[in-house]
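Ticket #4471: structure output looks truncated?

Reporter: J.K.
Steps to reproduce: submitted the chain below (207 residues) through the standard prediction queue, then opened the result file.
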Amino acid sequence: MEQDLISKKELLELTGISYGQLYRWKRKNLIPEDWFIRKSTFTGQETFFPKEKILARIDKIINMKDDLSLDELADVFSPNLAETAVFKEELIKRNIVSNTSLDLYTEQAGDAKVFPFEKILYVSILDQLLQTGDISLEEGKMLLRVLEDHYPKFQGKNCELVFIRKMGVSTFFLLSTPAEIYFEPGVKVVTRLNLASSIEELKIKIS
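Returned output as attached by the reporter:
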C-alpha cells in the first residue's frame, strides 16, 4: 500500500516551521534521512515526506524542545536502546507494564530485581499486544522468543515486528525497514509494529 505523502511546501505551511528549522532538525538526526523523499513533478524535483510520520514527529519536537536539548531529543528518537535499567517494582508502580505481562516474561526468561531497557522493551511490546487483544498468552510466549532470539541483531537499526495468522497458525517475524512485504491469499496481518516507535515511546515513558 502506497503511503500518503506531503510536500515540503505543504508541510512548512501546515506546521508553521521554517525551512531552516526543518533542515537543522534533519542535521541533528531528529528527522530521519529516509523520510526526505525526492520525486519528479511537473515543476521539477520536489521533496516529500511520509505525512503521518513527519507530522507526528514535528508535533513531538515542538512539544518537547522546551524541556530537552536537540541532542537529548535525538537520543529519544534514535532506534538505539537507552542505557537505562528500572527496578521490577517500579515497572508496576509507574504503570510501565502490567503484572500479567511481567509475570509471563519472568515465567519465560527468569526473574530479576532490575530490568535493563532491552528487556523492558520486550515486556512493553508484549503488554501492548495483550492489551489490544491482538495476541493470546501462548502467542505472547512465541513473541518473547522471537524478540529474545533475533532483536539483538537489529540493534541501532530500524525494524518492524510483523504478526500474521493463516488458518489458525500464528507467526511472528522481524524485518529491516523500510521494506515492502506481500503475502499469499488467506494470510491475515494482525499487526505491524515499528520498533523504533516503540523504543521512542518507552524512552519518553520511563524518563
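Triage note (M.O.): checked the attachment and the full C-alpha cell line is present. The radius of gyration is 19 Å.
Status: closed, working as intended.
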